[in-house]
Design goal:
Distance between the termini: 87 Å
Order of helices and strands: HHHHHHHHHHHHHHHH
Family: Belongs to the TAPT1 family.
Strand content: under 5%
GO cellular component, one term: ciliary basal body
Structural class: mainly alpha
Radius of gyration: 33 Å
Shape: globular
Helix content: over 70%
Membrane topology: Multi-pass membrane protein
Number of strands: 0
Subcellular location: Membrane
Keywords: Membrane, Transmembrane, Transmembrane helix
Length: 466
């Protein structure tokens, strides 16, 4: 009887080389059903991996010897990072970006304080009031409302109320208001953007109801944000004027806590750009807070400059220096942990300069709005606080004296604003052109036409329509 022939599918292991299968599996010489065991490793290979045993003195001499002939001080699998020599440039690049951001924020503040009322007065008295002028009118009404709210605030009472608190409670208050400042900034930018879009759209019953709700939200936001920044100003003023330096050190420790929350995380270039934009706005806010504190202190001593040079200037320099050091450390480790080159700062600067140059082609109310939204900067709360501090430090003169003084002062301020805007625009255009030429020189010749005709800094184009 013929045996049945079984046809089996080829095994997936059949394609393995014969030498590999023979080396990995060995059939034992015992019983047929014995378990297969791997072949023992060659003793010579094991002996090569095990280091030779040395005596104590031999180990001591090897530890004391730095290197032997033919050896290298760097292991084969460890190579020096190419970004390490460029760490010294990060401080300069960060401060260069901060210089441009602070300059723009100052120009935007001058626009809100000087140009905005002049524009509205010109539109109203000329009779050419269009729909695009409604949002600047709302901004002016917000400015007037914020200044009126601050007339009800007693700065001396708030100052002594904060001063009598314990150090721990003051530390908690400062942290709480710092978080509220960030939340209010983000919420305020969204509400202002929504209100601007609603005012520029067609009017209807539902749209009018939406505009009223957004306007109420904007007024509530402005009220909250003004008093949040006011408490920050007074808390830092208490820390600077205190004789105990530990209070100032505790308040400045928040800056180093910011390093902990920023650097130990994986972010891309877009996330790093958001950190940069927030730092630019924070740097300008800190400068304005220090200016208000110095002005108030000088007014208390009858504008004695020796008081400023005696001890106040040292604490102000200490606060600014700590902010600069913290920003440099933060961005240095962000670049180190995320393996970014220093050229990414040129991309950030080019994007900010492009926003300013492209915004110059728009109408007057919209020229600064794109870059303001990108930086998250709202000049209205700071403008209201500046008016409050100026009303406190300036002498109390009769109203007819102010009618004589204010027109020439506003005229000089308007000229300064126009000159400042012109210089800022020229600087942004010059930096944008130089950065484009630098990136074109770094590209191969066959790719230069593509970068010349297209957008050089494409990864950040999604910010252009925010």
């Amino acid at each position: 009887m013929k045996a049945a022939v079984r046809v089996c599918a080829p095994s997936p292991w059949a394609s393995l080389p014969l030498a590999l299968s023979q080396a990995s599996v060995r059939r034992p010489s015992g019983s047929r059903g014995a378990t297969r065991s791997p072949s023992p490793r060659p003793q010579a290979a094991i002996r090569e991996r095990v280091p030779q045993q040395h005596s104590f003195w031999r180990w001591l001499f090897k530890e004391m010897d730095y290197e032997t002939e033919g050896s290298s001080s760097t292991p084969d699998n460890l190579t020096p990072s190419p970004n390490l020599p460029s760490f010294v440039l990060i401080s300069f690049l960060v401060e260069q970006l901060c210089f441009f951001g602070v300059w723009f924020c100052f120009d935007s503040l001058l626009h809100a304080c000087i140009v905005l009322p002049c524009q509205l007065a010109r539109r109203i008295f000329s009779g050419h009031f269009a729909r695009r002028d409604i949002f600047p009118l709302v901004q002016f009404l917000l400015l007037i409302t914020g200044c009126w709210l601050l007339t009800k605030a007693d700065l001396s009472y708030i100052y002594h109320n904060i001063k009598t608190q314990s150090t721990v409670k003051l530390y908690v208050i400062v942290n709480m208001f710092e978080v509220l400042d960030r939340l209010a900034t983000a919420m305020g930018m969204d509400i202002m953007l929504s209100l601007s879009g609603a005012l520029e759209s067609t009017f209807s019953a539902s749209n009018v109801r939406n505009i009223l709700l957004l306007a109420a939200g904007v007024f509530i936001y402005l009220f909250v944000h003004i008093f949040v920044i006011l408490y920050q100003v007074i808390a830092l003023s208490v820390a600077i004027n205190a004789h105990d330096a530990s209070l100032l050190a505790i308040l400045l420790s928040n800056q180093f806590i910011e390093i902990k929350g920023a650097v130990f995380k994986r972010v891309d270039a877009t996330g790093h750009f958001q950190f940069i934009c927030y730092d630019l706005r924070e740097r300008f806010l800190l400068i304005m807070i220090l200016v208000m504190i110095a002005t108030r202190n000088l007014a208390e001593v009858n504008w004695n400059v020796h008081h400023l040079t005696d001890w106040l200037i040292y604490k102000i320099v200490f606060v600014m220096s700590s902010e600069m050091v913290v920003d440099t450390i933060k961005h240095t480790f962000l670049m180190r942990f995320n393996d970014m080159p220093t050229s990414v700062f040129h991309d950030f600067e080019a994007q900010l300069c492009r926003d300013l140059v492209e915004g110059q082609e728009l109408s007057a109310p919209l020229r600064s709005r794109k870059l303001e939204y990108r930086l998250g900067f709202t000049p209205l709360p700071i403008a209201c606080l500046l008016w409050k501090y100026l009303s406190v430090v300036l002498p109390d003169l009769p109203w007819h004296y102010w009618l004589i003084i204010l027109p020439p002062v506003l005229g000089i301020a308007l000229v300064i604003k126009v000159i400042n805007r012109s210089l800022l625009h020229r600087y942004a255009a010059w930096r944008l052109e130089s950065l484009q030429e630098k990136q074109m020189d770094a590209q191969p010749p066959q790719n230069r036409r593509h970068h010349l005709e297209g957008n050089v800094y494409g990864p950040y184009d999604r910010y252009r329509h925010t």
